[in-house]
Design brief:
Elements (H helix, E strand, L loop, with lengths): L2 E2 L2 E2 L13 E4 L4 E4 L2 E2 H7 L2 H10 L5 H13 L5 H9 L6 H15 L8 H26 L13 H10 L5 H14 L6 H11 L4 H12 L7 H12 L5 H10 L17 H16 L3 H18 L5 H11 L7 H22 L25
Antiparallel strand pairs: 1-2, 3-4, 4-5
Helix pairs in contact: 1-8, 2-16, 4-6, 5-6, 5-10, 6-7, 6-16, 7-8, 8-13, 8-15, 8-16, 9-10, 9-16, 10-16, 11-15, 13-14, 13-15
The structure holds coenzyme A (COA).
């Protein structure tokens, strides 16, 4: 831990809040949401069930899930004004900036916008989860000069996302893989973007404002932006035979390899292990094995030489690419997954709030005499 005179650089190891959401065992490489191992959730649950679990504490019964699913479906459409706002953006606008704008605009339309009560926040968490998924797909279509695909009323969350992206009903195999990946991204304890959302909420600002901040934080390449960077790396490598030469050059240039390393997991990121299997299947199904093979070889070379572990963003890249998600939508898709966890943390923060206000270690000059402008 980088600690100097009370300063803990990067807040490494600092426990900033109590949370009943995510049990992250970094040394053992294990992860559970509210006690349920993520491997079980990814294999057997849907994103809707996981969102319910995170927000309400227990998995839903069939009747509860039916009612909850219907509420999520009803919340999918966007205000026309947001679609018009997407049309005003430059065609080259970064989809993450468009998503930040979307979260802010949705706040201006939300009937509970400034109500920080638990019930209002549960309603907002649900609306944001449905609406941000629609926003990612609608902005993408509009930037391609295509009409947004209205959300389906009969598809689940993951299937509807893929449908709104392409206008075609997705295969069951792709839906299952995508749903599992959204589950694996849904929550991850006190990562940088979740912490950001909690800091914002701790001032008693509102949920939409906190989410706008979270989107800004997750966008960076050291956080959610790493997935997109992984795919760009694989494309730069181009073919399996080039991996060795690429890695040698990268090491010589002391290049940071995206999708490797983690602040908390030292032995391995359990999400990566599950995503590896999903990526292998998806790449094979779509006839794009080369991305998976390249990723595995890259992992083996880097791990052998430096001991670096692949993190969640490493195998999600070939997985999403092979099911047809555009590379610059990888981070927005991560937001579409993480929104359930952010909002669950916000529910916790508002229920037991204390302003988050750390200190800085002053390193500037000592006290000195002010010199008037004309004497400087
Ligand atoms: C995630 C990450 C920021 C966590 O790092 P951290 O706990 O702050 O650790 P540091 O950045 O201090 O790195 C510690 C050491 O490991 C090395 N390292 C860590 N991740 C590395 C990577 N991806 N590529 C190359 N070297 C890496 C650093 O160079 C450093 O080496 P040094 O001590 O010889 O200087 C870091 O691993 C990283 O930048 N990964 C790539 C981005 C990424 O995939 N992010 C998604 C995370 S889910």
């Amino acid at each position: 831990m980088a600690e100097q005179g009370g300063l803990i650089k990067g807040l490494e190891g600092v426990v900033a809040a109590a949370t009943a959401l995510c049990d992250l065992d970094g040394a053992g490489g294990r992860l559970a949401y509210r006690g349920y191992d993520i491997a079980d959730l990814a294999r057997q649950a849907t994103y809707e069930e996981v969102a319910y679990l995170l927000w309400r504490g227990e998995l839903p019964t069939r009747a509860q899930l039916d009612g909850f699913g219907a509420e999520l479906v009803a919340a999918r459409p966007l205000p026309d004004a947001l679609l018009s706002a997407f049309r005003l953006l430059p065609k080259k606008a970064d989809p993450m900036r468009a998503l930040q704008m979307a979260a802010a605009v949705l706040g201006t339309f939300d009937p509970d916008a400034t109500d920080n009560s638990q019930e209002a926040n549960l309603r907002k968490a649900l609306r944001l989860t449905s609406q941000l998924a629609t926003a990612v797909c609608s902005h993408h279509r509009i930037r391609l000069d295509k009409e947004p695909v209205p959300p389906s009323k009969d598809l689940g969350h993951a299937a509807n996302f893929l449908f709104m992206l392409t206008g075609e009903r997705p295969s069951a195999v792709n839906v299952r893989a995508f749903d599992a990946s959204l589950i694996l991204y849904a929550e991850h304890e006190m990562n940088a973007s979740t912490f950001t959302t909690r800091v914002i909420a701790s001032t008693l600002s509102d949920m939409h404002s906190a989410v706008v901040g979270g989107i800004g934080a997750i966008k960076g390449p050291l956080h959610g932006g790493a997935g997109e960077a992984v795919m760009l790396t694989l494309k730069e490598i181009g073919k399996v035979e080039n991996v060795d030469a690429f890695v040698e050059k990268a090491f010589a240039e002391k290049r940071r390899l995206m999708g490797f390393g983690h602040r908390v997991y030292r032995a391995g990121d359990p999400r990566a292990a599950i995503l590896r299997g999903l990526a292998e299947d998806a790449c094979r199904q779509s006839g794009q094995q080369m991305w998976f093979e390249m990723a595995v070889k890259l992992f083996e070379r880097v791990n052998r030489a430096k001991g670096l572990i692949p993190n969640v963003d490493f195998y999600s890249a070939p997985l999403w690419y092979s099911i047809g998600i555009p590379v610059d939508l990888f981070t927005p898709v991560i937001v579409a997954g993480r929104i359930a966890g952010w909002t669950a943390h916000l529910l916790e923060q508002y229920q037991d709030n204390r302003l988050i206000r750390p200190r800085g270690q002053y390193t500037g000059p000592g006290r000195r005499q002010f010199v008037p402008l004309e004497k400087r």
